[in-house]
TrEMBL record, chain A:
<dbReference type="Pfam" id="PF00528">
    <property type="entry name" value="BPD_transp_1"/>
</dbReference>
<dbReference type="InterPro" id="IPR000515">
    <property type="entry name" value="MetI-like"/>
</dbReference>
<keyword id="KW-1133">Transmembrane helix</keyword>
<feature type="transmembrane region" description="Helical">
    <location>
        <begin position="12"/>
        <end position="31"/>
    </location>
</feature>
<feature type="transmembrane region" description="Helical">
    <location>
        <begin position="75"/>
        <end position="94"/>
    </location>
</feature>
<feature type="transmembrane region" description="Helical">
    <location>
        <begin position="237"/>
        <end position="258"/>
    </location>
</feature>
<dbReference type="GO" id="GO:0055085">
    <property type="term" value="P:transmembrane transport"/>
</dbReference>
<feature type="transmembrane region" description="Helical">
    <location>
        <begin position="137"/>
        <end position="158"/>
    </location>
</feature>
<keyword id="KW-1003">Cell membrane</keyword>
Automatic annotation (TrEMBL), chain B:
<feature type="transmembrane region" description="Helical">
    <location>
        <begin position="208"/>
        <end position="235"/>
    </location>
</feature>
<feature type="transmembrane region" description="Helical">
    <location>
        <begin position="20"/>
        <end position="42"/>
    </location>
</feature>
<feature type="transmembrane region" description="Helical">
    <location>
        <begin position="112"/>
        <end position="133"/>
    </location>
</feature>
<keyword id="KW-0472">Membrane</keyword>
<feature type="transmembrane region" description="Helical">
    <location>
        <begin position="275"/>
        <end position="295"/>
    </location>
</feature>
<dbReference type="InterPro" id="IPR035906">
    <property type="entry name" value="MetI-like_sf"/>
</dbReference>
<comment type="similarity">
    <text>Belongs to the binding-protein-dependent transport system permease family.</text>
</comment>
<keyword id="KW-1003">Cell membrane</keyword>
<protein>
    <submittedName>
        <fullName>Lactose ABC transporter permease</fullName>
    </submittedName>
</protein>
Length: 273, 304
C-alpha cells in the first residue's frame, strides 16, 4: 500500500516537472535567442552565443528602438493614468451616491462589457478619422481609457469600504472631491495597484486597435514593431528575440515585484461575488 | 443608505456630485463604446464600396450563408473553440487539483511557473511559437533527435498541422491563467469533504470527478464563457502565425487559420473596404458569442 502510494507520488512530480519545462522553456529560449544569429535561432540552437551586442545594436540603430519604446511608454502611462482616474471616479460615484437613475446607467454599461471589440471597431475607426485623430497617440489613448471592466472591478472592490469614514469627513467639513482624492484613494491603494497592472498589461500588449489606428513607423509601438519585424521577407530572428525580451521584461518585473496585486488584477473581481 | 436626517439641499448636492463623478466615464463610454455599437448595427444593413453607401436591409445577413470565406472562418473558429477550450480547461483543473494538495512540495514555485506564460504579450508568444515550430526549427529538431518522428512535421505549412500549432500555442498561453481561477476557488472548499470521501473509499480520481468538478461548476462555466469570447475574437495569434503577418495573402496554409475576427479585419483593411458587410460579420460574432454562452448556461448552469 505504501509503495503504491509513492509510485503515484513520483508520477505526479514527473507530470509537474514536465509541465514546468513546457511552461518555462520558451522564456529560456527567448533569452538564449537574444544571444544568437538569425540562422542559429531558427535552427533551434539552445545554448548562449555571443551575438547579444550586435543584436541590440541592430535593434537600436536599424529599427529605431528608442523612439518605439518611448511611444509605447507614453501611450501606456497616459492610458493607465486616464483609466484609473476616470474609472475609479465613476465607480465611486455609482457606489457612494446611489440613485435609481445612476443605477440604471450602470446596468446599461455593464451590459456592454460582453460585446467583443470587433463589433465596434469599424465605427470607432471612422469616428477617429472624422476627428482627425488617425495616426495619433492621443486618438489611441482617448479611445482606450474608458474601460467598463475596470469600472466594474473598482466598484466591486469599493463595496468593502467603510462609509462611516466618508460621513465623518463630511461632518468635519471636507469637500466631496477632497474626500475622494485625499481620504478615499490613499486607503484603496491595493485596488488601484491591481487595476493599474491590468490596465498596464492590456495597453502595453495591445495589438489590433493600435495596428488599425497607428499607420506610420514613426508612431508604432513595440508590439506592432515586433509583429512587422517577424513578417519581413528575411526576418532577423536574433534581433526579433532581443525585441521580444525587451518588450516582455517590464511585465515580468512588475509580475515578480507585485505578484499578489498582479494575480488579483488579472483575475479581476470575479471571485469576490 | 446613509444620512436619513439630512436636508433637501444636501441631497440635491449629493445628487449633483454623483453625476459629476460619473460624467467623464459616461461621456467617453457614450462616444467610444455606445455610439459605435449602435452605429455598427446600422452599418450592418448597408453596403458600401469606398464612400458610396446604400441601405440594403437584411441582405448582408443573407449573404453570410453564401459567403464561402465566412463559412470557412466560422468553421475554423468553431474547431478552435470545440477542441482547444475543453483541453485547456481540463488541464487547468488537473493542475489546480494537484497544486491544492498540501502534501505536494514546491507548490508556490510550480504555481508561479505555470502562470508565467499568461504574462507574455499575445504577439511575443505567437512569434516565439512561430520560430519554434518552423520546419527546421527547435521542435522538429528535438522530435527528430529522440526518434519520435522520421521526417520533420510541416507544422506551419500544412492546414492540419497549422491548426494543431495554434491549439498548442493557445493552450500554453492560457492554461495557467485558468488554473489560478480554479486554485483560488479550491482553497475555499473545506478539506473535510475530501476526508469524508476518502473514508467512504473514493480515490483521487473519483474525488476529482464527483467532488471537485461539481463544486467548481459555476467557475468552470465562467471560464468557459470567458474562453468562448476569447476564441471568437482570436486575431493576434492567427495573424502572426501566418507567413507574412498582416500582409499575407492567406491566413495560414489554405486559410486554415482564418478566424472570424481576422476576416472582419480583411474585409475592412485588406480588400476593397466594405464596412457594411464587415459590420454584418462582426454582429454575427456577437450573436454567436451570445448563443454559445446561452448553451453553456443551459448545459452547466442548471443548479446555479
Amino acid at each position: 500500500m505504501k509503495k503504491h502510494y509513492s509510485i503515484n507520488r513520483i508520477l505526479v512530480y514527473v507530470f509537474l516537472a514536465s509541465m514546468f519545462i513546457v511552461s518555462v522553456f520558451p522564456f529560456y529560449w527567448m533569452v538564449a535567442g537574444m544571444t544568437n544569429t538569425a540562422v542559429e535561432v531558427i535552427k533551434g540552437k539552445m545554448t548562449f552565443g555571443n551575438q547579444t551586442l550586435s543584436n541590440i545594436t541592430t535593434l537600436f540603430t536599424t529599427y529605431n528602438m528608442v523612439r518605439i519604446l518611448l511611444n509605447s511608454l507614453k501611450i501606456t502611462v497616459f492610458t493607465v493614468l486616464g483609466t484609473l482616474i476616470v474609472s475609479s471616479m465613476a465607480a465611486y460615484g455609482f457606489q457612494t451616491y446611489a440613485s435609481p437613475a445612476r443605477e440604471k446607467a450602470y446596468s446599461i454599461i455593464i451590459l456592454f462589457m460582453m460585446v467583443p471589440f470587433i463589433a465596434l471597431m469599424i465605427p470607432l475607426f471612422r469616428l477617429i478619422v472624422k476627428m482627425h485623430l488617425l495616426n495619433t497617440h492621443i486618438g489611441l489613448v482617448l479611445t482606450s481609457i474608458s474601460s467598463v471592466f475596470i469600472i466594474f472591478f473598482f466598484r466591486q472592490s469599493f463595496k468593502a469600504f467603510p462609509y462611516e469614514i466618508i460621513q465623518a469627513a463630511r461632518v468635519d467639513g471636507a469637500g466631496e472631491f477632497r474626500i475622494f482624492f485625499s481620504i478615499f484613494i490613499p486607503s484603496m491603494k491595493s485596488t488601484y495597484a491591481a487595476a493599474a497592472i491590468y490596465s498596464f498589461m492590456s495597453s502595453w500588449n495591445a495589438y489590433l486597435w493600435p495596428l488599425i489606428i497607428l499607420q506610420t513607423d514613426k508612431q508604432k509601438t513595440v508590439t506592432l514593431m515586433i509583429s512587422s519585424m517577424s513578417s519581413a521577407y528575411f526576418p532577423e530572428y536574433g534581433v526579433i528575440m532581443t525585441a521580444i525580451v525587451i518588450a516582455t521584461l517590464p511585465i515580468i518585473i512588475v509580475f515578480f515585484g507585485f505578484q499578489k496585486y498582479f494575480v488579483q488584477g488579472m483575475l479581476g473581481s470575479s471571485l469576490k461575488q | 443608505m446613509m444620512g436619513e436626517n439630512t436636508s433637501g439641499s444636501f441631497i440635491k448636492s449629493k445628487n449633483r456630485h454623483g453625476w459629476l463623478f460619473v460624467s467623464l466615464a459616461l461621456i467617453l463610454l457614450g462616444v467610444f463604446l455606445f455610439y459605435p455599437i449602435v452605429y455598427s448595427l446600422y452599418l450592418s444593413t448597408t453596403s458600401s464600396r469606398g464612400i458610396v453607401q446604400k441601405f440594403v436591409g437584411f441582405s448582408n445577413y443573407a449573404r453570410l450563408f453564401q459567403d464561402s470565406m465566412f463559412i470557412l472562418a466560422l468553421k475554423n473558429t468553431l474547431i478552435f473553440f470545440l477542441i482547444q477550450v475543453p483541453i485547456m480547461l481540463f488541464l487547468a483543473l488537473i493542475l489546480a487539483t494537484i497544486l491544492n494538495d498540501k502534501t505536494i512540495k514546491f507548490r508556490g514555485f510550480f504555481r508561479t511557473a505555470f502562470f508565467l506564460p499568461a504574462v507574455t504579450s499575445l504577439i511575443a508568444y505567437t512569434i516565439l511559437f512561430k520560430m519554434m515550430f518552423s520546419l527546421d526549427g527547435f521542435i522538429n529538431g528535438v522530435l527528430l533527435n529522440v526518434h519520435i518522428i522520421k521526417s520533420p512535421i510541416p507544422w506551419l505549412l500544412d492546414p492540419f498541422w497549422a491548426k494543431v500549432t495554434l491549439i498548442i500555442a493557445l493552450t500554453w498561453r492560457w492554461t495557467g491563467y485558468n488554473m489560478i481561477f480554479y486554485l483560488s476557488a479550491l482553497q475555499n472548499i473545506s478539506e473535510e469533504i475530501y476526508e469524508a470521501a476518502k473514508i467512504d473509499g473514493a480515490d483521487k480520481v473519483k474525488q476529482f470527478f464527483y467532488i471537485t468538478i461539481p463544486l467548481l461548476k459555476p467557475l468552470i462555466l465562467f471560464t468557459a464563457i470567458m474562453s468562448t469570447i476569447g476564441t471568437l475574437q482570436l486575431f493576434d495569434e492567427p495573424m502572426n502565425l501566418s507567413q507574412g503577418g498582416v500582409t499575407s495573402a492567406t491566413i495560414g496554409p489554405g486559410n486554415s487559420l482564418l478566424t472570424l475576427s481576422v476576416y472582419v479585419y480583411n474585409l475592412c483593411f485588406k480588400y476593397m473596404p466594405n464596412f457594411g458587410y464587415a459590420a454584418t460579420v462582426s454582429y454575427a460574432i456577437v450573436l454567436i458569442v451570445a448563443l454559445l454562452s446561452i448553451i453553456q448556461f443551459k448545459v452547466m448552469g442548471d443548479k446555479k
